[in-house]
Give the backbone structure.
Amino acid sequence: MAKKIGRPPKSENHPESKQKIVDAAVELIRTDGADAVTVRNVCTAADLSIGTFYHYFQNKDDLLMHFLRETSFDAFALETPVERIADRICELYMHLIGQYRKLGVDFMKSFYTTGNHALSAYMGEENGCFAPGTVMERSEQEVQAAVEQGVLRSDMEIHKVCMDICTIVKGCVFEWCLSEGRPDIESVLRRIVGNYLSVYLVQ
């Protein structure tokens, strides 16, 4: 049973409590699916008070977003040169996919669903813009730089192209989940993104 709501007791007010909440959510998703993640269920599994939960997270969606916010893409250093823009974009997205793979296929099969509103909010847009600090926003900046440096055509619709790339990535991750993690997701992603962006390359 979850402990009562209120301010976290001193015994729970430390960084380890936040990690216990995250670990409990991971285990719930792996065993019972994303729908099993409720504030009460997580607190019960973590043996922490509800007040402690709200000390670290605003709500269930905020907790689920933790898995996507672990990596900030604002100033992430990429090794692939802009001249190889498709590979550069794939390198960027592989950092996000790397986070997914650490959590495991079973976790991702439950997490990567239409019912996960935190995921759909992160991977979507609002008022025609990607959320700040997301991999999609960084992807758009990289494509913009490639256009400015004459690598990609200047008449392309940058935001639309980046939305398409995001859709490709989601499809690759979904296929990876369906196939129990067997495909080499990086080589598939590079092939599809490379083919997609090839029509926009300046010859």
User: Anything to note?
Assistant: The mean pLDDT is 86.
